[in-house]
Amino acid sequence: MIRALTLPLLASAMLMSVSACQMPGEDLKANVYSADQVNSRQAAKVIQILAVLPAQVEVDNSANRRTAQLASGVFGAVAGGFLGGGLAHRNVLATGAVGALGGGALGAAGGSFVPETVLVGGVSITYVDEGHTFNSAQVGKACEFIPGRALVIETSPTTTRVQPNASCPVTTKA
Measured between alpha carbons, how far is residue 136 from residues 33, 56, 158 in Å? Predict the structure, then answer.
């Protein structure tokens, strides 16, 4: 009975851990700051947004890939151990161990199918700053930006964060 319950419980735990993966690119949004940027002075100025165009931003997904490999490997090892041990007639321990090794290797290989980079939604913002026209690609939604005045924060001489100057409509579930 315990053996019959263990595999479904482990499968549930694995699915929960994989589903807890962070959405790639969320940490790159203009309104997300790292710990070393909090309470630090950064240059800011008002700009004039001329155009907001949809864009795709390629972001690192290696953390989710490693999580998937680990979770798949552990799940494969447990499942392989149970299946190998359950199918054995004489040497349950040896067959279970071989099943666990094989299942773990196959599971980890399966987790490798998660791509190292993914495309996330973004915007290409064209703006005027002190008479010069610039463009800045940002992770975010087009509905968060509109032509008009906005705040840009310069985190380095070449890195800008155009702050959202609009809100996306809130959808309610019927």
Answer: 17, 13, 10
pLDDT in tens, 104-131: 555 555 555 666 777 888 999 999 999 9
Range of the structural domain that residue 123 is part of: 31-59+116-165
The DSSP element (H or E) to which 32 belongs, if any, is none
Same domain, 94 and 10: yes
Written as one letter, the residue type at 2 is I
pLDDT tens-digit readout, 31-52: 777 787 787 888 899 999 999 9
Interatomic CA distance for residues 145 and 140, integer angstroms: 9
Q: Tokens 């999580």 identify what position?
A: 67
Shared domain check, 76 and 11? yes
